[in-house]
Write a structure and sequence with these properties.
CATH topology of one domain: Rossmann fold
Number of strands: 8
Number of helices: 10
Structural class: alpha/beta
Order of helices and strands: HHHEHEHEEHEHHEHHEE
Radius of gyration: 19 Å
CATH architecture of one domain: 3-Layer(aba) Sandwich
Strand order of the largest sheet: 3-2-1-4-5-7-6-8
Shape: globular
């Protein structure tokens, strides 16, 4: 990655954006919740009895609470870069499902080496620039037989918004997202074994482009790339973008595509014992890293439903 890479992320800006979005995140994060539920379901294929689970990029802690409910005897750590997110996580705790809240950077985890049994990360890796440092830290903190389950966004994410902005100027308006093969290569570089990945495409629809942009702001997904437009966005530029977005309108709605990459990998070395499967794989990623066939799901604006794979 070049020092002058226009897609380089401003880490402090990312932290500040998510910090401000703590109180608005859950109301707008419908897609993020749907992907998190899918990722949780994939853990059910294994007979895990983890002593420690790290929810990496926990946000408001909704999934941390779900992990604690499922693995009652486990210690769950909800770790996030944004203090504002973690303050909201207290709402997902109960007397019988307490979890720790830790504010830290994924690239510098405050955990001992080989201390975690499972690292769970829902839609966080795309904010690591590049993901190698975070993946190396995940590998470091996992026990030799530990398991890493994650989701992240692929390059077709927000392709309509990127296209609508891209004709206006040379500034960067949408983050760069790695494809599945690059994510798999990064896992191997970090020392993971048997990485398995698959892709699902989701489409959220909106009445207009400004509604999409409001949702992105509400979840903290602001443009923090180095090449972003630094001045205030004038009415003329915004109007031209929204008019170009109209070319994508179908059935009275504007689509926003999300390419979701699901991944799973082991920290164990060859020959080491791993948790056994409790059923045939199917909840786990069904496609190997060299299979680029996606599952497509179209999502109405009010609700996201899971589409059964065949």
């Amino acid at each position: 990655m070049s020092v002058h890479d226009p897609f380089r992320l401003d880490r402090r800006g990312v932290q500040a954006a998510f910090d401000r979005a703590g109180t608005t995140y859950e109301a707008a994060a419908v897609l993020q919740a749907r992907v998190g539920e899918e990722l949780l379901e994939r853990l059910e294929a294994f007979d895990f009895r983890p002593a420690l689970i790290l929810d990496l990029g926990a946000g408001t802690g909704r999934l941390s609470g779900r992990l604690k409910r499922r693995y009652r005897r486990s210690r769950v750590i909800a770790l996030d870069l944004a203090p504002g997110m973690l303050r909201q996580a207290a709402r997902h705790q109960g007397w019988l499902r307490r979890f720790d809240r830790v504010c830290a950077d994924a690239a510098r985890l405050p955990l001992s080496a080989e201390s975690a049994d499972v690292v769970f990360s829902n839609l966080m890796l795309q904010w690591c620039d590049p993901p190698d440092s975070a993946l190396a830290e995940v590998r470091r903190v996992l026990k030799p037989q530990g398991f890493f389950a994650f989701s992240t966004f692929g390059p077709d994410t927000l392709k309509e918004l990127r296209s609508a902005w891209g004709e206006d100027d040379a500034s960067t308006h949408v983050n760069r997202f790695l494809d599945m093969h690059d994510v798999g290569d990064a896992l191997v570089r970090a020392g993971f074994t048997e990485p398995v990945l698959d892709v699902e495409r989701l489409t959220v629809t909106y009445a207009d482009a400004r509604s999409l942009m409001r949702d992105l702001k509400s979840i903290g997904a602001r443009n923090m790339t180095a090449g972003r437009w630094r001045a205030l966005t004038g009415k003329g530029r915004l109007q031209r973008m929204t008019e170009r977005y109209e070319a994508h309108r179908r059935d009275g709605r504007l689509p926003a595509t999300y390419e979701v990459i699901y991944g799973a990998a082991w920290a164990s070395r060859d020959g080491e014992e791993r948790p056994r499967r409790t059923r045939e794989p199917g909840a786990l990623p069904p496609a190997a890293a060299n299979d680029t066939s996606p599952t497509e799901v179209h999502i109405p604006p009010s609700r996201i439903r899971r589409r059964e794979r065949t």
